[in-house]
Write a structure and sequence with these properties.
Structural class: alpha+beta
Distance between the termini: 52 Å
Number of domains: 3
Length: about 450
């Protein structure tokens, strides 16, 4: 399976709705919603919710690209819509129902005729907080990696091996070697477990993660999240946890814990790496579905019962979900979250001008930047435009400043084929000067010199 069209859900939909699937021009969509604070200021509480549609009729390398996302609506802040999100989604739902029942006239450039285009919403893509709002189900903010790191490093408020967990073992009458031991009249001690790390083992485990170096864009700077002095790791994003689980946890665990403890944890990491592959094989998914049951049973022999939260239990169903829904890279939030982070970098106005109501200004600023940048419009071309035939009045000219003129000039040059030869000339000149050993002149100065020469 390389595309969602190879999944069981897609094939079942085709067999159920033959009239829709008989025309390959009909569109299949996924709905994505997430909230974020675009201003980057902790003191400014704001939650803007873009709602996007993902067209799945595209090839694998275009499905989740930023240029393929369709901004359907923007829910302004300053607070999360919560359970009232259905009110904001109602116009979109009505349009989707119309696209499914009636369709819309569209032009086929290949056959050069007009046809009735229909669309179907295949599924929605959310993180768990947004999933709770959209579906109305109660969900929880934690993942499997939090349980593992918190327990093996014995992190306060994160570990699943605590006083109450040992009392649970005594109540269940299992693993007597881990029961609380009386020390004095009113004091008890917690005997060490097989997954407890010594101080030296914690240092070695964290040092491996501290030395991790990854390519740009692969993950955040994980080394900054490691605190060797306090022997803890914190501030990890969901994608960082995913990278740690699939890539670095098996390496860091070796030499820090006994083999009978690391073996099932490494098998768990391999399971996540297998189901998150770009290409899935049905036979491999079937074997992973059977192996994960054994892996979780092995973990139950190591960790206390409270380790197995709802999220750990959910691992049981991930292989089945991959078999039904297809490759997971089309149904997870990471491309969307990166896109929201990219949009966040465009917001420049951090405070409301004098005389403006702060809340109204923030809302207008959010709507402005979302509607412009999520449609791929460049900054200097954000001025309102109007077609000449739509107005009988004379169109007034707009005066541009020196900076805007320079930006517009360079934009035209960089998007024109006529400048290609000058780019190659610029590249060859840079290579020649570098070969002559002009190491004292930085690349930035050379670049600026030639840009001023060829671009004015």
């Amino acid at each position: 399976m390389r595309h969602l069209a190879d999944s069981d859900a897609w094939k079942m939909f085709d067999s159920t709705h033959l009239q829709f699937s008989s025309d390959p021009r009909n569109v299949r969509l996924g709905l994505v919603a997430d909230g974020f604070n675009p201003f980057g200021i902790l003191s400014t509480t704001h939650s803007t919710w873009p709602v996007m549609l993902v067209p799945y009729n595209l090839p694998p390398w275009l499905c989740m690209k930023w240029s393929s996302l369709i901004l359907s609506l923007v829910i302004p802040g300053p607070k999360s819509p919560g359970i009232a999100i259905d009110v904001y989604l109602q116009p979109l739902v009505e349009e989707l129902r119309e696209l499914w029942d009636v369709g819309v006239e569209a032009y086929d450039a290949f056959s050069k005729n007009v046809f009735q285009l229909h669309a179907a919403l295949m599924w929605t893509v959310h993180d768990f907080p947004a999933y709770a709002d959209v579906s109305g189900w109660s969900t929880k903010e934690k993942n499997v990696m939090d349980n593992i790191l918190g327990t093996v490093l014995n992190l306060k408020d994160w570990t699943k091996d605590n006083y109450k967990a040992r009392l649970d073992l005594a109540d269940m009458g299992i693993r007597s070697e881990l029961h609380l031991r009386r020390k004095g009249d009113d004091k008890y001690t917690i005997p060490p477990a097989c997954f407890d790390m010594s101080t030296l083992e914690k240092d070695g485990f964290l040092q491996v993660l501290r030395d991790v170096r990854v390519p740009d864009g692969y993950a955040s700077n994980i080394s900054r999240r490691v605190n060797l002095k306090e022997r803890k790791i914190s501030g990890l994003k969901s994608h960082d946890n995913d990278i740690l689980m699939q890539q670095f946890l098996p390496i860091a665990l070796r030499g820090s814990l006994p083999s009978h403890v690391t073996r099932p944890l490494i098998k768990l990491a391999c399971f996540f790496r297998k189901i998150c592959s770009k290409t899935l094989t049905v036979s491999d998914i079937a074997s992973a579905e059977a192996d994960i049951v054994v892996t979780l049973c092995e973990l139950e022999q190591i960790f206390p019962p409270c380790f197995f939260t709802a999220m750990v239990h959910l691992v049981m169903h991930l292989a089945t979900e991959a078999k039904i829904g297809g490759p997971v890279q089309y149904r997870w939030m990471y491309p969307i979250e990166r896109y929201l982070s990219h949009l966040k970098s465009y917001v420049r106005n951090r405070a409301a001008p004098k005389g403006c109501i702060a809340e109204r200004y923030i809302v207008e600023e959010c709507l402005t930047f979302c509607s412009r940048y999520m449609e791929g419009v460049e900054t200097i071309f954000n001025r309102p435009t109007r077609k000449m035939e739509e107005s009988t009045r004379a169109v007034s000219s707009v005066a541009l400043g020196n900076r805007e003129l320079t930006q517009a000039h360079r934009y035209v040059l960089f998007n024109s084929d006529n400048i290609y030869q000058f780019r190659e000339m610029h590249k060859s000149l840079m290579e020649d000067e570098l070969r002559r050993g002009h190491s004292r002149i930085s690349n930035a100065i050379i670049h600026k010199h030639h840009m001023e020469k060829f671009c004015g």
